[in-house]
Design brief:
Number of helices: 8
CATH class: Mainly Alpha
Radius of gyration: 17 Å
CATH topology: Fic-like fold
Number of strands: 2
Low-confidence stretches: none
Order of helices and strands: HHHHEEHHHH
Shape: globular
Strand content: under 5%
Distance between the termini: 58 Å
Helix content: 55-70%
Mean pLDDT: 95
């Protein structure tokens, strides 16, 4: 049996110096282009119009939660995931999950969902730079793999929710669509750095558009 990628991720998560990611200031104004909506309404719609509609609805719900100051938690994820998948109810996976053609296996232990809930709470930790918290939430969902399907889509919604809670929207999200691996601390830190780059670029373009 392959190694438990979730256990590897939990080790990597503790090794990464998330605080080393440069803090982004000032907070961007709302961009001229809503990158998340454009991604769902562009590349996603081209492949599957119904999926695009469901994701846009879930995006609206996640942003409303962020505006109310609701941090990431399992009940929120459940609500979004029902919309993402277009089904009336969802439940956490009941056994090991696999991804990347079976090359990554995500184990399940008695404490898994308790640990996952604790990780979600850390997405609101102000002592960690915003871009690192957003990237870490994305990776937590990717590697805890809480649901039998749709976790990659949910991870992007979670990343955007963490940013939205602090008034940040990106004007492009395409660069985030890259395969990530649970045992890669350099890749995890690179994702956090990429989120910082995208925030800064969004800010610059928003200011240029406003002038």
């Amino acid at each position: 049996m392959s190694d438990d990628a979730l256990a590897l991720w939990c080790q990597v998560r503790e090794q990464v110096d998330w605080s080393s990611v440069a803090a982004v200031s000032p907070v961007p104004v709302r961009p001229a282009v809503d990158g998340l909506a454009a991604w769902f309404d562009g590349p996603v719609r081209h492949r599957d119009p119904d999926r695009a509609d469901r994701l846009l609805t879930a995006m609206t719900l996640s942003r409303a939660a962020a505006s109310r100051g609701e941090p990431l938690a399992l009940p929120l994820l459940d609500d979004w995931q029902k919309l993402v998948l277009g089904i009336p109810d969802v439940c956490l996976r009941q056994g090991d999950a696999f991804a990347k053609g079976g090359r990554e296996r995500y184990g399940l232990k008695p404490r898994t969902w308790r640990d996952f809930a604790a990780c979600l709470r850390q997405s609101a930790d102000p002592s960690v730079p915003l871009s690192a918290r957003a990237a870490r939430a994305y990776l937590d969902i990717a590697f805890f793999h809480p649901y039998p399907d749709g976790n990659a889509r949910l991870a992007l919604l979670a990343l955007s929710h963490v940013l939205e809670a602090e008034g940040v929207r990106l004007d492009e999200v395409g660069p985030l669509q890259t395969t990530r691996y649970a045992d890669d601390p350099v890749g995890a830190l690179d994702l956090a750095a990429l989120v910082s780059v995208l925030i800064r670029a969004t800010y610059r373009r928003a200011i240029a558009t406003a002038q």
